[in-house]
Amino acid sequence: MAELPNDEQPQVDAATAVAARDTVEPDEWLRRQRHSAAHVLAQVMLQIFPDAKLAIGPPIDTGFYYDFLLPRPLTPGDLKDLEKRMKKEAKRGHKFVWEEVPGDAARQQFADQPFKLELIEQFTEESDTVGICTHADFTDLCRGGHVQHTKQLGYFKLMSTAGAYWRGDENKPQLQRVYGALFSQKDELAAHLERLEEAARRDHRRLGRELGLFTFSEDIGAGIPLFLPKGEIIRHEIESYTRDVQTRKGFDHVWTGHIAKRQLYEKSGHIDNYDSDMFPPMVDGDNEYFLKPMNCPSHMTLFKAELHSYRELPIRYSEFATLYRYERSGVLSGLTRVRSLTQDDCHIFCMEAQITSEFLLCLEIVQEEMATFGLDLRVALSLPGEEEEGKYVAAPEKWDAAVEALRTAMKASGLEYTEEVGEAAFYGPKADFFALDALGREWQLSTIQVDLIQPERIGCEYIGEDGDKHTPVVLHRAVVGSTERFMGVLIEHWAGNFPAWLAPVQARLVPIADRHLDYANKVAAQAKALGLRVDVDAGGERMQAKIRNGQLQKIPYLLVVGDTEEEANSVAVRKRGGEDLGVQDVEAFLAELSQEIEERRRDD
RNA sequence: GCCGGUGUAGCUCAGUGGUAGAGCAGCUGUUUCGUAAACAGCAGGUCGACGGUUCGAAUCCGCCCGCCGGCUCCA
């Protein structure tokens, strides 16, 4: 939800600053409830900390927050206390009264509130008056947008506290932010809390440990995931599938190592623009080597290694490359934000006239793969905005041509998309793909970017039809993005219930008693011979316990074998969810499972 | 990086200055079982690291490391 710049905010007058429910849209009403609740939070915060300095308290996607400067850190107990007080004030039904006052009057009113004074200074540059809103004994500087009284706040819960810089600037004081969830209906709040619990159950960090997929080690370093055998199978399947799709679509595969010299990144511009995200260099005499933070300079260097004719274009280099990025320690998180990552990167070297068709080709790949993974897509074209301080390098006519090429391609694809002006990279326009997971969360995974800058900087050239040298356009393209992050998304999307083709163990034999062990091993060997990933639970537990364990490990098929099965050369098939598929002939079942894997079927 | 929280057995967690605990997992034995947990015993720890206070530190203080929530949503 992009906010309008301040000067484009709808002007509010006293008549609409406070509104009755039936006079506004439900979304607007909800925003008003959330914003009004923030006022009440500030009111009760002052009851506990009379010296608290108030910053801002806007409505957000799932509720509201308010930033405060307080004499001491808030505790979970404080949160409970604040919530209790808020509910008490809510019940009292204080009226919200909004009015405009002259700047000077406001300055007096908020004399002991430095953040409010700063805001008043800002607002009075444009207007002589500012808005204030009063309920009960509490008055806040306020743009307006309230419910009528505090009985109309809706249903809320204070969720957490966090540090937040004043105006999001790390050079400014750090405040304490209190987050609250708020919805109009009681069941909406309950559903929201249930969603959070479901997200916690699906958390890939938790499932990664429970399913034995990956781990981290203090000895190795923060942000460097280590993949256990079961996790590596998933990585490998994702990568080999992606590689196969690309091969089919005419991509070549290359390999460019892990480090490169400083000069390369000086040429590419990374030292200037990306320095703080790169690990410090390794020094070897007069040379400095950097761990690769990106592949583009390496692929472009590779392109330069051979002389190219326009007849060869487009040339498409793809690579699963391990990259290292020095992410700030505070932002690391599981597999979704790491310092070592494997990117399914590709660079297409082409002529301007080929942008549209190459873009469409990439689009096909993105669509095919996301369909296989069961993720819905939202597409955004990120276009340049008004020229600001040379943010967008290169000739305007090239930009216009590239933007038109992308639009043409998007229209030809028939996909719905939005245009986001001012969001382009400094080197060119791009399309970003947001995947929608099972919980309705969006993840930015795939991207297709036009690069009008780097090829020239690195010195990429081809010989044109006219016999002269020309600089190619490069398309950067990633489908799954980083394998690590993508795995994290898939784990959460499927809650660890991978389709058989990705599942580390595709089927497990469950012998009922020890005398069935030989038969179980025989069936397992038969399955392995077909390339299936199968194991045998040879432990001394009872069958019930083995089934429970297999199910907790989210193994797609449990194959129970006892006397009946052994005699008939069959297995009793139980699906992960508990569904009993009955006794099936071994060969028939294995053939069906192989087929399911071959087709990469999902059972969702 | 910054703010707050947190770190005890493989995992989940009790334990607030006086000899380190439970459940699950593991191992051993008994049980050989028909669709989500059989029973018993055993073993398992420099209490994240380093330094300090103290007769004595998992516990108090300092520093470092890791992990968790946040640091965009503008009166």
Overall description:
It is globular, with a radius of gyration of 30 Å. The strands form seven sheets. It has an eight-stranded mixed β-sheet. Helix 2 crosses helix 3, helix 7 crosses helix 15 and helix 12 packs across helix 13. The two termini are 30 Å apart. 37% of the residues lie in helices and 26% in strands. It contains 19 helices and 28 strands. The protein has 604 residues and is of the alpha+beta class. It folds into three domains: 195 residues, 2-Layer Sandwich (Threonyl-tRNA Synthetase, Chain A, domain 2); 253 residues, Bira Bifunctional Protein, Domain 2 (BirA Bifunctional Protein, domain 2, 2-Layer Sandwich); 92 residues, 3-Layer(aba) Sandwich (Rossmann fold). The protein binds one RNA strand of 75 nucleotides through strand 2, helix 5, strand 5, strand 7 and strand 8.
Task: Summarize this entry quickly.
The protein has 604 residues and is of the alpha+beta class. 37% of the residues lie in helices and 26% in strands.
List the defining traits of the structure above.
Threonyl-tRNA Synthetase, Chain A, domain 2, alpha+beta, RNA-binding, BirA Bifunctional Protein, domain 2, 3 domains, single chain, disordered N terminus, five-stranded antiparallel beta sheet, 604 residues, Rossmann fold
Structure class: alpha+beta
| CATH homologous superfamily descriptor of the largest domain | Bira Bifunctional Protein, Domain 2
Please report the total strand number as a whole number.
28
* Global shape: globular
Q: How do the strands and helices of this protein lay out in sequence?
A:
Elements: H1 14-17, H2 26-48, E1 53-54, E2 59-60, E3 63-69, H3 76-92, E4 97-102, H4 103-109, H5 114-123, E5 129-135, E6 138-141, E7 155-165, E8 174-183, H6 186-202, H7 204-210, E9 214-215, E10 226-227, H8 229-248, E11 252-253, E12 259-261, H9 262-268, H10 270-274, E13 282-284, E14 287-291, H11 296-304, E15 315-324, E16 340-350, H12 355-373, E17 376-383, H13 396-413, E18 418-421, E19 430-436, E20 442-451, H14 454-458, E21 462-463, E22 469-470, E23 473-482, H15 483-494, E24 507-511, H16 517-529, E25 534-536, H17 543-552, E26 557-561, H18 563-568, E27 570-575, E28 580-585, H19 586-598
Parallel strand pairs: 11-15, 17-18, 24-25, 24-26
Antiparallel strand pairs: 1-3, 2-3, 3-8, 4-5, 5-6, 7-8, 9-10, 12-14, 13-14, 15-16, 16-23, 17-19, 19-20, 20-23, 21-22, 26-27, 27-28
Helix pairs in contact: 2-3, 7-15, 12-13
The protein binds one RNA strand of 75 nucleotides through strand 2, helix 5, strand 5, strand 7 and strand 8.
